[in-house]
C-alpha cells in the first residue's frame, strides 16, 4: 500500500501531465493519468488535442498487462458516460487496476460522482481528497463552464508605469520588452481562445496567434463587435480559414457584413445588447455554449472595463514597463463609473516577479 507521500507525488505527476493539455482539449478538461505498480511508473497519459482520446486509456495502453493490480493516479474523476468514446471507468475496470487515486469529483452532471461509484461497485478502491487545491486551479475553467455556463477569464493588461497602453498619437510598439511578449504567447497557448474588442482589432490589426513556439493547434480568436464594423482586409479576415475567428455581435449587425464575414470563414455568435453595448455575460455564455473553458482577454480598454464592471474577470495579469507616457496617453482601462473606492474591483495578489526589464504581477478574484 502506497504512503500518503507517495500518493501525493504520483498525483502531482498526473496533474503536471494534465497541464500540458491546457488550451488544447476543450470542451473536455485537460486530464493527466499515471499507472503505477510497486513504485514504478508503467504508463502515462494526457488528454489529447481536441479532447480525445482521454488520458486514462492512453496510460493504460502504455502499461499493458502491467496495469492489472496497479494504481491509477488521475487528476480528475474518470468519466462514466458514453460520449464519442467509451467511459474511462470501463477501461480502468477492464484493465484490472486495483486502486484509483483522484483529487476530486467531476462537476459535469454526466459524471458527478458516478465514475467513482462505478469503480467502487467493481471492487476497485477509490481514494480522494489529496491535491484538491491544485486540481481546482487546473480545472477552474472546466468547472466554471459546467457550473456557470461560461469560461474562466484571464484579463491581461500590458502598460506603462502610469497605466497607459499608447501615446496620444496611438504609438504603442513596444511598451514592454521581448520577455514579456514571449510570456504573452505562452499564456495564449494555455488558453482556448484569445479575445479582443473591436477597437483593438481596428487599431492594431492583430494576428492573435501563438508564434515562435512550434504550436500546431492555435487558440480560437474572438472579437467582440456589436455591429461587425471590422476591416475585411485585416489579418484576422485573411487567415480565418486557417485559424478560427469567432465574432460576437448584436442582432442589429448589418446582414451584408454578416454574410461577408461568414464568406471569409469566420464564425458568428449573436449576443444580447445591454446599454448600447454587447452584454459581457451574454458574450461569455455564448462562448461557453460553444465549448470554451479558458479565455485570454487582451483588451482594449472598453472591453476590459466592461468585464470588470460585470465582475467577470477571474484572473488579472499585469505587465508593467518602466516607461511613463502621461495623462494624454491612452489608458489601459475604459471608464468604470466609480463614485467610491469601496466600489472598485479588488483582487488578491498571486504572484509578482521581474520579467526582463518589466514587472509581472498576477492577481486572482478573491475566493468566496
Automatic annotation (TrEMBL):
Highest rank taxon of the organism: Bacteria
Similarity-based family: In the N-terminal section; belongs to the cytidine and deoxycytidylate deaminase family.
UniProt record, GO biological process: riboflavin biosynthetic process
Record-listed Zn(2+) binding positions: 54, 79, 88
Cofactor note: Binds 1 zinc ion.
Necessary cofactors: Zn(2+)
Catalytic activity: 2,5-diamino-6-hydroxy-4-(5-phosphoribosylamino)-pyrimidine + H2O + H(+) = 5-amino-6-(5-phospho-D-ribosylamino)uracil + NH4(+); 5-amino-6-(5-phospho-D-ribitylamino)uracil + NADP(+) = 5-amino-6-(5-phospho-D-ribosylamino)uracil + NADPH + H(+)
Keywords, ordered alphabetically: Hydrolase, Metal-binding, Multifunctional enzyme, NADP, Oxidoreductase, Riboflavin biosynthesis, Zinc
Listed GO MF terms: 5-amino-6-(5-phosphoribosylamino)uracil reductase activity; diaminohydroxyphosphoribosylaminopyrimidine deaminase activity; NADP binding; zinc ion binding
Role: Converts 2,5-diamino-6-(ribosylamino)-4(3h)-pyrimidinone 5'-phosphate into 5-amino-6-(ribosylamino)-2,4(1h,3h)-pyrimidinedione 5'-phosphate.
Residue numbers annotated as active site: 56
UniProt name for this protein: Riboflavin biosynthesis protein RibD
EC code(s) of this entry: 3.5.4.26, 1.1.1.193
Taxonomic lineage: Bacteria, Pseudomonadati, Pseudomonadota, Alphaproteobacteria, Rhodobacterales
Pfam families (UniProt xref): dCMP_cyt_deam_1, RibD_C
Entries under InterPro entries matching the protein: APOBEC/CMP_deaminase_Zn-bd, CMP_dCMP_dom, Cytidine_deaminase-like, DHFR-like_dom_sf, Eubact_RibD, RibD_C, RibDG_C, Riboflavin_Biosynth_HTPR
Pathway: Cofactor biosynthesis; riboflavin biosynthesis; 5-amino-6-(D-ribitylamino)uracil from GTP: step 3/4; Cofactor biosynthesis; riboflavin biosynthesis; 5-amino-6-(D-ribitylamino)uracil from GTP: step 2/4
Organism from which the protein derives: Pseudooceanicola atlanticus
UniProt: NADP(+) binding residues: 158, 174, 200, 204, 300-306
Amino-acid positions noted as binding substrate in the UniProt annotation, renumbered to this chain: 172, 188, 208, 211, 298
Matching NCBIfam families: eubact_ribD (TIGR00326), ribD_Cterm (TIGR00227)
Domain (CMP/dCMP-type deaminase) ranges: 5-127
Annotated spans, Disordered: 44-63
Amino acid at each position: 500500500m502506497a504512503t500518503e507521500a507517495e500518493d501525493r507525488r504520483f498525483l502531482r505527476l498526473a496533474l503536471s501531465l494534465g497541464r500540458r493539455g491546457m488550451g488544447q482539449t476543450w470542451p473536455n478538461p485537460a486530464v493527466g493519468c499515471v499507472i503505477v505498480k510497486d513504485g514504478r511508473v508503467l504508463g502515462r497519459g494526457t488528454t489529447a488535442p481536441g479532447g480525445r482520446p482521454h488520458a486514462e486509456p492512453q496510460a493504460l495502453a502504455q502499461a499493458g498487462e502491467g496495469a492489472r493490480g496497479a494504481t491509477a493516479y488521475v487528476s480528475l474523476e474518470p468519466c462514466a458516460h458514453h460520449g464519442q468514446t467509451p467511459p474511462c471507468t470501463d477501461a480502468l475496470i477492464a484493465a484490472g487496476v486495483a486502486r484509483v487515486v483522484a483529487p476530486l469529483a467531476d462537476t459535469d452532471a454526466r459524471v458527478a460522482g458516478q465514475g467513482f461509484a462505478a469503480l467502487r461497485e467493481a471492487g476497485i478502491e477509490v481514494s480522494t481528497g489529496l491535491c484538491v487545491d491544485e486540481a481546482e486551479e487546473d480545472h477552474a475553467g472546466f468547472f466554471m463552464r459546467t457550473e456557470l455556463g461560461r469560461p474562466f477569464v484571464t484579463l491581461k493588461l500590458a502598460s506603462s508605469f502610469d497605466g497607459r497602453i499608447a501615446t496620444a498619437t496611438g504609438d504603442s510598439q513596444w511598451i514592454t520588452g521581448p520577455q514579456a511578449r514571449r510570456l504573452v504567447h505562452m499564456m495564449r497557448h494555455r488558453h482556448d481562445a484569445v479575445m479582443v474588442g473591436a477597437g483593438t482589432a481596428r487599431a492594431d490589426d492583430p494576428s492573435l496567434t501563438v508564434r515562435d513556439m512550434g504550436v500546431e493547434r492555435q487558440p480560437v480568436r474572438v472579437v467582440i463587435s456589436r455591429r461587425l464594423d471590422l476591416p475585411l482586409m485585416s489579418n484576422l479576415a485573411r487567415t480565418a480559414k486557417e485559424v478560427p475567428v469567432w465574432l460576437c455581435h448584436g442582432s442589429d449587425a448589418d446582414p451584408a457584413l454578416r454574410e461577408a464575414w461568414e464568406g471569409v470563414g469566420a464564425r458568428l455568435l449573436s449576443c444580447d445588447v445591454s446599454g448600447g453595448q454587447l452584454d459581457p455575460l451574454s458574450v461569455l455564455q455564448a462562448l461557453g455554449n460553444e465549448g470554451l473553458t479558458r479565455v485570454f482577454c487582451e483588451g482594449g480598454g472598453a472591453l476590459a472595463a466592461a468585464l470588470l464592471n460585470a465582475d467577470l474577470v477571474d484572473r488579472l495579469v499585469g505587465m508593467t514597463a518602466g516607461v511613463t507616457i502621461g495623462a494624454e496617453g491612452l489608458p489601459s482601462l475604459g471608464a468604470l463609473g466609480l463614485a467610491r473606492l469601496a466600489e472598485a474591483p479588488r483582487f488578491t495578489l498571486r504572484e509578482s516577479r521581474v520579467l526582463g526589464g518589466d514587472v509581472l504581477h498576477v492577481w486572482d478574484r478573491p475566493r468566496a
